[in-house]
From TrEMBL:
The chain crosses the membrane at residues 12-33, 54-72, 110-132, 180-198, 210-229, 235-263. It comes from the Bacteria. Keywords: Membrane, Transmembrane, Transmembrane helix. It comes from Clostridium intestinale. This is M50 family metallopeptidase.
């Protein structure tokens, strides 16, 4: 009996990791890049740099929270899309209420918390569609190819990275520099990606939902419903999530490099 319990708990832990680990790890990386980038920009240009990037990035961040909150049946009680940083550095917020005895509402906390990572990335992809469509279609091809893999290993991850190397080269083609919309895309992408990471409040909210997701999986495994989702489906889910969020990491890394260059140039 004890072995069965241990097996169920172990399986649940692994499934929770498979479903959320990529998001958590990339969220941490985005947070580190964002904090250091903004620190460099503030040292170079002062607090006004936050307002310039925040004017575009913060509303998208907060709207992402709000949209997913509504999707999971939460009631939005107050929303502030953009403001000057307060004493805690807050530039926007979404306050929402929900029924604590509602499983769907509780699980929603996780997705509400991580929403800006996806809302920001999807916004950048949409911008790409209208400003540099060739790069957009190459990205879509990468995402489609990723869904053809049936296992997740070093070789698959390496192939995804190679695809993104080619994708980056495609973004910075000579022809794009002759396109005025390309510069608009770069500016807006920098603004959005500068505010794509999660705040402490976001992480705290997401952690509530994470615990409920674990308990739900534990119950499903305990009653024998663990095979409802196939291993291949989970693998494809992870590849898709990784492929989408790698774009956010790449853009955040570019912003970090730009912030270092601007800090060193002292123009």
């Amino acid at each position: 009996m004890s072995n069965i319990i241990i097996d169920v708990i172990t399986k649940t832990i692994l499934e929770t990791v498979y479903l959320t680990a990529v998001i958590i790890v990339i969220g941490f990386i985005l947070g580190v890049l964002r904090n250091n980038s903004l620190k460099n920009l503030q040292r170079r240009f002062g607090s006004k740099s936050l307002m310039i990037t925040g004017f575009i990035g913060v509303p998208i961040h907060e709207l992402s929270h709000g949209l997913i909150a509504l999707l999971f049946g939460h009631k939005i009680t107050e929303i502030k899309l953009f403001q000057k940083p307060d004493a805690n550095g807050t530039m926007g917020y979404v306050k929402h209420s929900y029924r604590k005895n509602n499983l769907y509402h509780e699980i929603g906390n996780f997705f509400i918390g991580i929403a800006p990572m996806f809302g920001g990335t999807i916004s950048i992809i949409a911008l790409m569609r209208f400003s540099i469509p060739t790069s957009y279609f190459k990205l879509i091809k990468i995402l489609e190819d990723g869904l053809k893999f049936r296992e997740l290993n070093k070789e698959v991850f390496y192939n995804i990275l190679l695809s993104y190397k080619s994708f980056l080269e495609n973004i910075f083609l000579i022809e794009n520099f002759k396109n005025p919309y390309f510069y608009l895309f770069l500016f807006l992408s920098i603004c959005i990606a500068s505010h794509i990471s999660l705040s402490k409040a976001d992480v705290k909210g997401a952690s509530k939902g994470l615990g409920v997701i674990f308990l739900l999986l534990l119950i499903l495994n305990a009653i024998g419903f663990s095979n409802l989702i196939s291993e291949v489906t989970i693998i494809k889910y992870n590849i898709l999530i990784t492929s989408i969020l790698i774009l956010a990491v790449i853009l955040s890394l570019i912003i970090y490099v730009i912030s270092i260059i601007l800090l060193k140039l002292k123009i």
